[in-house]
Amino acid sequence: MFRKVLITAGNTKVPIDQVRRIDNIFSGRTGTEIAKYFAEHGEEVTLLTSDPNLLNGYHKAPIRIVAYKMFDQLERAMKREITEKRYDLIIHSSAVSDHIVDKVYIEVDDRLVEIDRSKKISSKHKHLFLRTSQTPKLIDFIRDEWGFKKTLVKFKLEVGISDEELINIAKESRDHSRADFIIANTLESMGAKAFIIDKENRISLASRKTLPEEMFKRIA
To answer: How far is CA 169 from the centre of its chain?
Structure first.
């Protein structure tokens, strides 16, 4: 019996002005490969992705695509999908921006002066000073705010720590978001290995290539 599966993939961009953006290095390739694998094994998959082009030429199995670019677009799309449709499984792999830019300043006579960022900021300024604000953790809306009660998978990436440290951080992160599984890796080894950890703290290991298959087996 197929499940309805929602997968988020890619990154979110935050605007500096009307033409400049800040994003991160993650493309959404991993989430897209997970979506393909689950769809090819009979699941009804919706993919929220910042790069739909990763599915160009793909015809093996149907995948419903919802595209986004900005943080607020992803937030609205997730809320709409989760509150209006009945998913059995959510896999949240998007690399979501931790901060948004809310003000931009230039230095004038040793003090900071806010400038208009509603259009294009002039390139004549030697220095720009950005004030950012922390974004909410979208995964933490999934249970209480948006009412999702079924299986939730969270992703966690860290930099420059040991496997033991990563696993401990991942367990805390899983519990904080009330996820059923967490996929944890480090930037340095994300192509080579990822840990799949469930609520009972059972751990299995996968490479980027085998991750979709291992997740499917663990979450089936």
So the answer is: 18
**What pLDDT is attached to residue 1?**
56
Place of tokens 């900021």: 121
- Residue 33 falls in which region: left (phi positive, over 0), alpha (psi -120 to 50) or beta: alpha
Residue ranges per structural domain of the chain: 4-96+137-219
For every residue of 119-176, which 3-state class applies, written as one string?
CCCCCCCCCCEEEEEECCCHHHHCCCCCCCCCEEEEEEEECCCCHHHHHHHHHHHHHH
Q: Which two tokens stand for residue 7?
A: 């997968």
pLDDT in tens, 3-43: 999 999 999 999 999 999 998 888 899 999 999 999 999 99
Structure tokens at 91: 């896999």
Q: Coil, helix or strand for 80?
A: helix
How far apart (Å, rounded) are the C-alpha atoms in residues 68 and 55? 15
Distance CA 58, CA 138 (A): 29
Angstrom CA distances, 49 to 16, 78, 127, 164, 178, stand at 22, 11, 33, 31, 23
CA 209 to each of CA 19, 60, 156, 192, 205: distance values in angstroms, whole numbers, following the listed order: 36, 18, 18, 8, 12
Q: How is domain 4-96+137-219 classified at the CATH fold level?
A: Rossmann fold (3.40.50)
The sheet with strand 111-114 has its strands ordered as 111-114, 99-108, 129-134
**What residues of the chain score a pLDDT lower than 50?**
none
- In whole angstroms, give the CA distance from residue 29 to residue 93: 10
